[in-house]
Write the structure tokens for this entry.
Amino acid sequence: MNIINLSLKVLEPKRRIFEAATKEPLKAQEHVLFEYLRRSAKTEYGRTYDFASIKSIDEYRKRVPLVDYEDIREHVDRMAAGEENILTRDKPIFFGATSGTTDKPKLIPVTRYSESQNDSLLNLWSYYIARDHPDVTDGKILAIVSPEKEGETPSGVLLGAESGHSYRNLPKTVMALYSLPYEVFEIEDYEARHYAMLRISMGQEITDIATLNPNTIVLLCRKIERWQDLIIKDIAEGTLSEKFEIPERIRKNITIRLKPDKRRAEKLSTILRSKGKLLPRDFWPKMKMIECWMGGMMKLYLKELETYFGKITTRDMGCVSTEARSSIPVRDNDPGGILAIRTNFFEFIPKEDIDSKNKRTLLCDGLEKGKEYYIVVTTAAGLYRYNIDDIVKVYDFFNKTPMIEFVQKGRGATSMAGEKLYESQVNESLKASCDAAGLTIDFFCAVATPLDGPRYTLLAEFSGPGPSDERMRKFLVSLEVQLRIHNREYDFVRASQLLKEPVLKIVRKGSFEDYRARKISNGAPEGQFKAPRLTDDAEFEKNFSVEKTIPFG
């Protein structure tokens, strides 16, 4: 029995239990909540809000406050210093590090118990993939994550990327399915890490690629042509080029796994001679799917994947943050999944209520299809009524349980003249304008510039040969039209001349990759790096070299 058949057999009972729970989601949510309250009743936080005496969901919502990270930072800092029984009775074994609203990172505790809860969710996600794609493990899985270790807490607990932590701790039998050894992600030099990824994976038959940000895949594919001859040579000789700065310890751990493969090298050479370039669709012909984020601005990058992979099946990674995994994707080419009702307890704040002093919080049985909400979680790791600051949309129901997709970060909004422009509206407008003009972008950001108008400065780097000025001007006008369609307040302030027309600034080719490299070298997690599509940082433009300005009209 192969690993796929075994997985399906083992996980089938869990699939039945989960799908049965989707028929009575509030009952499942109640069970999760009271299990977490029971476990944490004697913690400092549990005693403060008397978890032990809470008898209903409504009582929990009345007694325990909504919080964001800054509200609990002091509690987490104490946990990181080694104090126990603060937010959870379980001792943290790891802290997931992620950026917050201040210059200090957020540290999210991971415990053995919370890890087991998340593993159950991931097993279900894997079940649905295996069910729909039983041949997905006919080759290797190319997963791209960020390093597990970025530092340590004062008490000596590792902190870093949760994706790297999970990857490094995969069982050996499962790790055998993956293309890259963990050590690759420890390479600090940006170019060297990417070269190692390509050199190793192109020497294998890849059937599945998994990473959060699809732009990471696009970026790797663009670099193949630059290194193709060197990659073929390394594969033939079983080496890892000395041209790249790789620490000796890491180089040794990688090269010990490499063997000369002249047959694979000749296959790549044949493709290169016949096609003129190496594209994944040619050298990985058995590719089954790509797993990545599909919601929000990621929709723009999915189209570019076709250049390298042709028509490829995609599976969303789900609504995932360092704080919580909130959905279980169950369908191909679908930017969302079923609310993870047996893993976390969820509440939802209607988007229009977020600035209200008396915010409504809805439960999973009170949501409406097509509406957008801020998502609030209570987790096994000690987060209680925690506003992740993610906006999700309910786009369907599975039985009686909402299916959600990520829309944007909650703070991804700007307003200079009352327009309240959201990043999601920029994403949709940009996609429509790119499709209409037949253009593909490498980078785009709308910058709110209040002192110049006010107006929006649109920074862009187009793929391929630069379009003509006239074509870019038409693109700019189209984008303006789309913004006015997607945001009535924007339409109003433009019509009333409270907001000046936008201006398009074309940045130097390669500017975005240079910016991305700088951010990653300064500590941003590569697998999760996302440049803003909309910002109110008027200084943001200084990160790029502007080559041309296209006025409106």
User: Anything to note?
Assistant: Residues 41 and 276 are 65 Å apart (CA to CA). The first strand starts at residue 92 and ends at 98. The chain is about 40% helix and 20% strand. The chain has three domains: 3-113+317-409, 137-287, 413-550.
